[in-house]
Amino acid sequence: MMLAPTPAVGSLRGLPAYGGPKAEAISLKTMEVFMKFESQLLKGIAPVVVLQILSRGEMYGYELTLAIEQRSDEILTLGKGTLYPLLYNLEAKRLVKARVETTKSGRKRRYYSITSKGKEYLAGQTEQLRKLRTGLDFVFGGALKTV
Fold first, then answer.
1. What are 48-51's contacts with CB under 8 Å, separation 24+?
2. Which end of the chain, N or C, is less packed with Cβ atoms under 10 Å?
């Protein structure tokens, strides 16, 4: 899952205004750290996003990808290299179940749905996200509500 590109922000405190090699090296390192953090954050949230979308009804992989993009206003995207391993993992944990259906063209398609165990897990994770958002609202003085 990736976040859509965001515009560059102002210069970092302590960096020369003109940029230069030192500023470039620091900003690249900072960007690497940010990207690693962003990747880990999204890696942790992806299962919850998938379960939330599946709580609305059964879907096949591509349909699920489109639903995630649409529901997140195209901020969250899940490539098939991320989605299918995630679905297999959720299935192994019995949070989702899959059934195979053959389409009119003869192609086999896997439809995924959330299980009762998945619904329980989703409820717990949703509560954790609410607490996290509350904490972040306190830290940012409610500024996140306007974003």
1. 48/122, 48/125, 48/126, 48/129, 49/1, 49/76, 49/78, 50/78, 50/83, 50/86, 50/87, 50/90, 50/96, 51/90, 51/95, 51/96, 51/114, 51/118, 51/119, 51/121, 51/122, 51/125
2. C
Q: Token match 């879907």: residue?
A: 59
Residue 76, pLDDT score: 83
With beta carbons less than 8 A apart as the criterion, state whether 76 and 69 touch. Answer: yes
Copy the structure tokens of residue 7: 């515009």
Q: Which domains does the chain possess?
A: 2-6+14-146 (1.10.10.10)
Q: What is the pLDDT of residues 83-105, one digit of tens each?
A: 999 999 999 999 999 999 998 99
Q: What is the pLDDT of residues 1-18, one digit of tens each?
A: 444 443 333 222 333 444
